[in-house]
Structure formats: C-alpha cells, structure tokens
Amino acid sequence: MPPHEGLVHPKEYDWRDSNVELINSDLDHKIKHQSAQHEPAWNNGVIGMAPGLFIWRIEDFEVKQWPKEKYGSFYEGDSYIILQSEAVKRDTEGGDGADETEKDKLVHDIYFWLGAHTTQDEAGTAAYKTVELDEFLHGAATQHRELQNSPSDAFAALFPRIKILRGGVASGFTHVETNEEPEHVDTLLRIFKHPRAAAGRDGILIHEVEPTWQSLDEDDVFVLETSSKIWVWQGKDCSPIEKMKAATVVNDMTLAKHKEVEVLSSNDSRSKIFVDNLGGSDVDLLSTQLKAPRPMSAHTEREVKKLFRLSDAEGGDLSFDLVKEGNAVERGDLDSNDVFILDAGSQIFVWEGQGASRKEKKMWLKVLQRYIANHADAVDLAVSKVVQGKEGKSFWTAVEA
C-alpha cells in the first residue's frame, strides 16, 4: 500500500489489509524483538512467565491494559489484544527420574480482536503489536485474527459470555463514539447462544443492538435499560440458558444502578409494552413476525474441512494443492518442509513447518488472500497462524475433528 493511502480509512476494517507479509524476515524479527523489550504492556514480570488470561485495548496507538472486571466485554469501535497462556506438561524421555518441574511449559495463544467499526489505525496497531508480543514470547505463540461477527470456537471458549457494546475509544486518526453515553439513551442488549458452543460450555454472546422493535427476535432474549427501569423480553423460542444468562446480566446491572426490573414473555399480552418502548406502538404482534438477523456472519455455519499444501519443492516454483478433505485429514498429512492451510469450516489455520523455505513463509498470506477471494463463504472466518512444535489445543482439535 502506498504511504499516502495509509491516511484513508474505510468505515469498517478489512483484516486482509493488515500488513503481516514480512513477519518472517530476519530484519522484521530483529526490529520486533527490540521493540518488544521496551513495551510496558509486556514487561511486567508476568507476561510469558505465568499462566493466565490478559487483555489490552489499543488506545491512540498504545497498548493499554483492559480492566479485569470488563473481561469478555468489547466495544465494536475498538481493537483488542488477548493473550491466553496455559501451563501444559512437556513431553520428556527421562523416565520416572525426570524432574516434574521440567515437564511444565507455557503454551500461548494471542488473539487480536477487531470490532466491526474499528478504524484502520487501531487494527493496524493491533496487528503489529500482536506480532511484537509473539516475538517477546520467542515465537512460541499461535496468532489468531478474530472478527467481531464471526468469533472462533477457541475465542468464544475463553469467556463465559461475550458482550459487544456500541461505541469505542477515540482513535489517533478518527474520532469514534465514546464509551460513555448519556443516561437518557436507552440500551438494548441481545442475548443468544453461540451457534457452535462447545459441549459443556454456555457460549453466550451479548450484543448491544439498535434500540428499535425491528431488532427483536423470538429466538432470543433482550434486555432494555431505560432511564427508570430495566425490562427483560423473552422470545417464545429462546433457550433456558439464554434466560439464565439474561438474569445474570440484569443482576450485574441492578447491583450498580438499583433499578426496578420487569420480566416479560413474548407470549404474554403485556409484552406489547416492551415493543411500544422500542417505538413499535403501531405494530400488530398477531400479524407481525419478530425476526432479526443475528449480529454474526452466516459463514460461521460452514462445515467443510480441506487441507492445502504450499510448497516450492518442485523446481523452486510455488504450488498450492489440495491434499485431503473431510474427515480424512489427519496429523500425518503435515510435512515439516512445507506450509499448509487448513480450512476447518468454521476457521482457517496456517501451519508453518520448521523446515519450510523462506519463499513459502513469505508467500502464505498472499496465497491465503487469494484463496479467500475465491471462496466468498470464507471471507468472515477467523484466521490463525501456528508454527510446528508450538501448536495449541485449538489447532489439533480442528485437525482431528
């Protein structure tokens, strides 16, 4: 991208615009590693040393710690970096005499999360700082690029619930609506279950939506906060877990604001009050179906799995070929001398073999962009890049599913 184009920012960010093509050059590694040594967010004696979940928001080109009490809450106008460090047992060959303390290692997953209305400068900073954090962790992390409207299974599993709010911090280039809203502005939250929530997990998503009756849907639960009261509207086809999570959300709200709460079922005639409060006083509920698209990409429902190899083994020319598809894909299909792209249906992984050539490491992003351009149903998928020997649980789960 020419330098002058960097000052022109689309209203909504396209992750494919992030410049990560050069992340494997020697110069880039040196620059990122040097920069990482002076980033206060990483140099606190904890990052890379202890397991845990850590979140930062990009504010005016800087990495700012996100309050723990807000973990799981994100503004659609912002970009965030999330680090999940997990202690796992090392594979040792020392037999019974091996030192138990030497069997533990930290496995890192870094997510940079891009709100639907984040600005180009925030998204670019998040992408850059994600690579820098990986350098700080000595290249041991799996990098994930997450889009607001299509969270990956691994990302959704980090939180008991994900709450998406309108607004965002003021950008370095572009001013976005601030987080603080006047008290008289009604807030409408939509509560629904992630379509691919893992067994045993709630996987509840909470999105702030436009406070109008057109935002309602009989499949979900909605919470409306007005200046004097909190209303809960339960769609006739909502699930018990959605009702339970709505109760938790309302409890959190009333602890701080002490407002009266009224719960209504859409089957009750009194539920018309809820619709009226959202500007639907003229709506006939007997003849009107309340059905609003969920604020998620429809592409999260894809169930295709394909494995492709990127290789220059044949005469130095790059080839990109389908290796296997469906349930036939397995660990043994990966070759340490090449780069592989796994389209897991709900997410795309790039696997870099330790013996991959410089050209293969450099060209994977361009090849991935071309692949996505030719598969419209993959545009909104989350993308993760892993390195051989440093794969996380989410990658192997996708391979073996």
Radius of gyration, CA atoms, in whole angstroms: 23 Å
Encode the helix/strand succession as letters: HEEEEEHEHEEEEEHEHEEEEHEH
Ends apart, CA distance between termini: 38 Å
In spatial order, strands of the major sheet run: 2-1-4-5-6-17-16-15-13-14
User: Which parts are unreliable, with pLDDT below 50 for 5 consecutive residues or more?
Assistant: 1-13, 15-23, 92-101, 172-178, 180-184
CATH class categorisation of the largest domain:
Alpha Beta
CATH-defined topology of the largest domain: Severin
Strand content: 25-35%
Q: What is the overall number of helices?
A: 7
The profile of the biggest β sheet is: 10 strands, mixed
How many strand elements? 17
**Helical fraction:** 10-25%
Overall geometry: globular
State the CATH superfamily name of the largest domain. Severin
Mind telling me which CATH architecture of the largest domain this is? Answer: 3-Layer(aba) Sandwich
Structure description:
- This protein is an alpha/beta fold and 401 residues long.
- The chain has 3 domains: 1-92 and 99-165, Severin, CATH 3.40.20.10; 187-296, Severin (3-Layer(aba) Sandwich), CATH 3.40.20.10; 298-401, Severin, CATH 3.40.20.
- 20% of the residues lie in helices and 27% in strands.
- It contains 7 helices and 17 strands.
- The protein has helices spanning 26-36, 120-136, 153-156, 240-257, 272-277, 358-373, 393-400, and strands at 52-59, 62-65, 73-75, 79-89, 104-114, 141-147, 161-165, 187-193, 204-209, 221-225, 229-234, 260-265, 306-311, 319-325, 339-343, 347-352, 382-387.
- It has a 10-stranded mixed β-sheet, with helices on both faces.
- A hairpin with a 7-residue loop joins strand 13 (306-311) and strand 14 (319-325).
- Helix 1 (26-36) packs across helix 2 (120-136).
- The longest helix has 18 residues, at 240-257.
- The two termini are 38 Å apart.
- Mean pLDDT is 80; it is low at 1-13, 15-23, 92-101, 172-178 and 180-184.
- GO terms for molecular function: actin filament binding.
- Pfam families: Gelsolin.
- InterPro entries: ADF-H/Gelsolin-like_dom_sf, Gelsolin-like_dom, Gelsolin-like_dom_sf, Villin/Gelsolin.
